[in-house]
Amino acid sequence: MRTGVRVRFRSSIWKNENEHGHRFAWQVGYGAFSVSVSNTATVAKYIRDQEKHHRKMTFEQEYRALLKKHGIDSDVP
Question: What's 73's DSSP letter?
């Protein structure tokens, strides 16, 4: 099993076993990015402010910009 598939599979099981309420499921497309320890606080702040941030730029716009910034070809139509 590929690592990405394994992460999706295991995280879905954990989420559904440990959190009650709505059933968790991954969307069809997904991306995963690593973050260095030195950037942990910046990423945590970004996550806390995500709702406000996405009033200025949609998730799709931000995702495409991130891929382009790092030279990654997007297969998102």
Answer: P
Q: What is the pLDDT of residue 44?
A: 92
**Of how many residues is the chain composed?**
77
Hey, what amino acid is at 14? Answer: W
Q: Where are the alpha helices (DSSP H) in 1-77?
A: 3-18, 40-48, 50-53, 59-69
Cβ within 8 Å of residue 63, ≥6 positions away: 31, 74, 76
Tens digits of per-residue pLDDT, 8-67?
Answer: 777 877 777 777 777 777 777 766 778 899 999 999 998 899 888 888 888 888 888 888
Q: Is 57 helix (H, G, I), strand (E, B) or coil?
A: coil
